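note to self: dont lose this again. the chain is below, predicted strucutre after it. 286 aa total, dont forget to put it in the shared folder this time
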Amino acid sequence: MGVLNVTPDSFFDGGRFASAGQAQVRVRELIAEGADIIDIGGESSRPGATSVSAAEQLDRVEPAIREAVAAGARISIDTTRAEVAERALGLGAQAVNDVSCLADPGLARVAARAGAVLVLMHTRGELGSMAGFSEYPSDAYHDVVQDVLDEWKQARDRAVLQGMPRDRILFDPGLGFAKNGSHSLELLSRLSDFRCLEVPIVVGPSRKSFISRVDPSPPERRLGGTIASCLVAVRRGASVLRVHDVQTVRQALLVARSIEALPAAISQLDGEAEVGGTREERAARA
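---
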């Protein structure tokens, strides 16, 4: 899932793709880099960000959505507002990415009516009042995995009450949202514990501040930590990775999978050799 923030104030790429022309070019770049889904958002969810009206969000995202639809891309709309989601789905988006943990149940109604996928990300409280730089009390969770699981299930159940099918709701643990660096690292370490939900797991570690708790660095120097987090997340069950650096992360995943597949391939060849002799002998018999 390639990130496209059509905003002036997102924490990493704010302002880079704020104009319609810049956003449309970036859509084509993300597709070329291998993005399976383009996640388009018109409101920053960084700590302390100012709320943006539905009308302004739509002004920002519509050119990018239209470009992505024309290119045949799969699109998710990153919004917490039902009216923005409804318009985006009407334009051709297929998923709603809600980073508010369903603060507005109307979002689920809209997604259900459209037959869309709903990504529910865990968080607590209002996004605008969230502390930044992974600042969150260490004792805010009794057990961060179990508490996130329980609270997310409550949001999922609210969505189901609005008509959203359970099998079209995806889980995102919300790294960095109402969590400190240790919380986010533990969620990644124990990500496989969420397989009990039996739904696809979405993870968004890209350039986030929990990485700087391990290696102090600004967002523009967190690519290594992003790649490491993505590799761990996939090993522990993630189905979708939400990242800014699509080509680089995709390359890392492809190489890791190729390396991991080698022992099995070698074992298979060894087995064939034992049963059927050398390659030349098998060819001669054929």
